[in-house]
Amino acid sequence: MLRQYFATKCRYPGTLLAMRVGDFYEFYGEDAETAARALEITLTGREDGPNGRVPMAGVPFHAAQKYIAILVKQGFKVAICDQVEDPKTAKGLVERAVTRVLTPGTVVEGEMLDSGANNFLASAAPYEGGAGISFLDLSTGEFLVTEVAGDDAQERTLQEIARFNPAECLLPEEADELYGLLGKLVTTMVTRTPFASVRDAKNRLMRQFGTSSLAPFGLENMDAGSSAAGTILKYLDQNEVQAAHVDHLTTYSLDSRMRLDGPTARSLELVANMSDGGKRMTLRETLDFTKTPMGGRLLKRWIEEPLLEADQIERRLDAVEAMAASGLARDEIRGVLHNLSDVERLVAGAGSGFSNARDLVALRKNIALFPDLLAKTHRVGRGLIEDARKRIELCEDVLGELFRGLADDPPFSLREGGIIRPGYHHALDEFHRMSLEGRKFIAELEATERSRTGIEKLKVGYNSVFGYFLEVPKAQVAKVPENYIRKQTVANAERYITAELKDHEANVLGADEKAFDLEYRIFAKLRECVASAAARINRTARAIAEIDAVQSLAEAASMRGYVRPELVSCEEGGRIEIEGGRHPVVEAHKGLGAFVPNDTDLGDDLTLVILTGPNMSGKSTYLRQTALIALMAQIGSFVPAKRARLSPLDRVFARIGARDELASGQSTFMVEMTEAANILHHATPRSLVILDEIGRGTSTYDGLAIAWSIAEHLARRGTPTLFATHYHQLNALAESLPNVANYRVAVREDGEQVVWLHKVLEGGTDRSYGIQVARMAGVPRDVLRRAAEVLADLEGVARVPVEIAPPSPQLTLFREDESDIARRIREMDVETITPIEALILLDNLKRESAK
After folding, report:
1. 807 prior amide bond cis, ω within 30
2. Distance from first CA to last CA of the chain, Å, rounded?
3. Helix/strand/coil (H, E, C) string of 368-408?
4. In whole angstroms, how far apart are CA 317 and each of 287, 549, 562?
5. Using an 8 Å Cβ cutoff, are 389 and 543 in contact?
6. In a 10 Å sphere around its CB, with 0-12 CB exposed, 13-18 middle and 19+ buried, how is residue 450 labelled?
7. Residues 299-314 pLDDT 10s
8. 376-407 tens-digit pLDDT
């Protein structure tokens, strides 16, 4: 057996091999040590002659899926080696073979998947000047392909893979640079594999879809995309994975949806929070009132991929408005959706050959609800909803076959019988009749034999070794008739068989065995029936997902008092006009009415707002709420505001918070500058940029210089920007650039206490209230007193009175000032200096004064 194990293992390098041995799946050698550590199970061993002690670890076969799921989630590949020969008829060692290789990107079992997110297997085929990219979610059958080209093709390839966050990504063995960069960007398992040639890939794709051309899928002229997609199918073949339900492929353009980079999605906490990566306190949680796993996954995709075209946004908004306006119809629709389960993954299980009878019964219940959903959506069937209704197919043929064929409450196992409904298959019914008659005879035999022999305590028993037997207490052995054949002696009784008993036993066991085998074959055909209808059922499932996502947005709008945003055309730049805007996530957790609303007006003559104010006052919240409202509008959602007029944006960029990436050698400031560089290279006048505390990761003057320059650059480009900062000197930009304005977050001082009003007002501020915030945080009083003294000293030295000389951004010294530093500057015969020159000069003078 060990030779058999290690010979099989050689064919699957880099993979843990789990071999079925009796009632366990066993691991041996290094695989046993790895599995024992990962699963926290006991590591044992056995002597193997000259090879010494061989490590062993095993898991029960009935619970194997749970343990294998743990290994796959930890990033291991697991090969399942099953018995492919009946142990009862095997001569010598039972034949075994690998029936499937489980990897993070190829699982379809529900226990191994997050019902609220797709489980993509990605593939990237780079070439000089571009790349083909493909994504397949085997658990839903969704298959996507795109291509990128140009000088930034590699960057866009990496960003697209990161955006989908696949469970596993396939790369060519020679793609070393892409492999290294991808490893720094995502935690995805990356598998190096030989890629299919364009010809082989296209042939494999045509074989999968049963077509003679790839033109219907838009792949005819996409060689790199075809190679990436074909390699995914080839990888499934290598891993013994069936994919009969994958019968369609969709090509898409990266320019068809808004691209949100990683830092922006992370800063805005769209689908994952920054504390633990979970769903709590995210926009997704706030908007997610979906009732089905399909709807939840689609809503997540909508949030991650805002629309760009105004007509598409309006169609989605129309559907949300119709659903929101009819509360009764929406409640009825939600009632039907509540009873639906994950249709896409039930179909995928059938197409992959892994579903059991209970899965098909669940699918049957779902299909039976399709007519009800169609009827309930009639009243709101307009636009997007009407399109979705047209895609719902009742699949009555599949439903009828499943009703006729499957029992109402089948067992979990496919080898125990009880799966097929009586009356569906004549031969199966005959086997059941033979078994039932044999069991009836055996059941009546005990009473018959007691009466015939006079042995009052005679019993009919069964065990797996001898089959059925007659048990007689030893005290009554003298009454045993001649036709009884003694078979076994036990403590207080003798066990016998008869020729007639054995005949009926053969009928029972033979009929049962034949029935079990036939039932499995009948079930397999029912499963194939579902797989052959996968395209129709999946089209319906996706239509249901769309209805569910729309009703979810409508439910959120109704519950939270959101309004429909008005889309305006603005060819030259972005337009963001929000009256009484609120942060959707904060408001959802604080409660309706507890949030202080604020206005935002960007575009036309004002494109950059310098926002100052103390810590804890709500600057970051205000920035985020503006970006979230803009994104919600382009998702097709109503928004948390009194009124909102917005032009569709091409991109949204957010740089908020401090973090480092020490593993890749990047400090907090380096990460900040990398993200700022990305914004400056890609933001346009039709983008929205929100920046919070740019420049704080380095020295004061370096940071101020960088913040000043970035703000000035964005203002001159005309990119709508909200720029929160503690560098009060940036307020000077409003005097020199006409499209810049200063705003502040208001506070009220009550002695040493500060009350945050959370209201954004016109005009800048020159105070940050840092010591007051430190007091609220519990910093010791003696530290606070000393900080106040130092602050007074620093402000006394550093405050050289200057005035802005419009329209120039230069600073002119007050001639009448009598401070020591002002006198020193006059002696240097300096008439005007730039703000940055002034700060550097003041710093040098302070150092001299200190000496």
Report:
1. yes
2. 84
3. HCHHHHHHHCHHHCCCHHHHHHHHCCCCHHHHHHHHHHECC
4. 14, 12, 12
5. yes
6. middle
7. 999 999 999 999 999 9
8. 999 998 889 999 999 999 999 999 999 999 99
Q: At what angle do helices 29-39 and 2-10 cross, to 10 degrees?
A: 80
Which among 224, 200, 202 is positioned nearest to 213, based on CA atoms?
A: 202
Residues with Cβ within 8 Å of 212's Cβ and at least 6 positions away in sequence, in order, are 206
| Alpha carbon 17 to chain centroid, angstroms | 28
Residue-wise pLDDT tens digits, 636-646: 999 999 999 99
The secondary structure element, H or E, covering residue 839 is helix 835-850
pLDDT in tens, 634-678: 999 999 999 999 999 999 999 887 664 544 556 778 888 888 888
SS3 category, 341: coil
Q: CA torsion sign, 535 to 541 to 544 to 546?
A: negative
Per-residue CA distances from 126 to 131, 236, 749, 755 (Å): 4, 21, 60, 56
Residue type, 620: S
Strands 608-612 and 721-724: parallel
The Cα-based distances of 20 to 25, 48, 98, 355 in angstroms read: 4, 19, 10, 20
Distance CA 355, CA 49 (A): 43
Token readout for 829 is 């015969």
Angle, vertex CA 814, rays to CA 813 and CA 818, nearest 5: 115
State the amino acid at position 335 in one-letter form: G
- 1 and 83 Cβ atoms separated by less than 8 Å: no
Contacts of 98 (CB under 8 A, 6+ apart): 8, 11, 12, 17, 79, 80, 81, 82, 240
208/345 Cα distance (integer angstroms): 19
Distances (CA, A) of 837 to 709, 726, 796, 820: 14, 19, 19, 18
Query: Do 446 and 546 contact (CB within 8 A), yes or no?
Result: no
In a 13 Å sphere around the CA of 753, the CA atoms on its Cβ side amount to 3
Give the whole-angstrom CA distance, residue 765 versus residue 729: 10
| Cβ atoms 710, 694 nearer than 8 A | yes
Token pair listed for 756: 């945050």
Question: CB neighbours (10 Å) of residue 155?
Answer: 14
Rg (C-alpha) for the chain, rounded Å, is 36
**Residue with more model confidence, 788 or 63:** 63
- Contact (CB, 8 A) for 573 and 720: yes
Is the pTM here over 0.70, yes or no?
Answer: yes
Query: In the structure encoding, which two tokens stand for residue 72, read together?
Result: 């796959």
- Identify the CA nearest to 445 among candidates 505, 487, 486: 505
Q: Considering only CA atoms, which of 148, 157, 145 is closest in space to residue 218?
A: 145
- Identity of the residue numbered 107: V
Tell me the backbone φ, ψ of residue 113, rounded to 5 degrees.
-125, 155
Q: In 3D, which of 668, 620, 565, 688 has the Cα closest to residue 269? A: 620
* CB contact burial 76-90 (16+ within 10 A = b; e otherwise): bbbbbbebeeeeeee
Q: How many CA atoms lie within 13 A of 816 on its CB side?
A: 1
Q: Three-class SS string for 401-459?
A: HHHHHECCCCCCCCCCCCCECCCCCHHHHHHHHHHHHHHHHHHHHHHHHHHHHCCCCCE
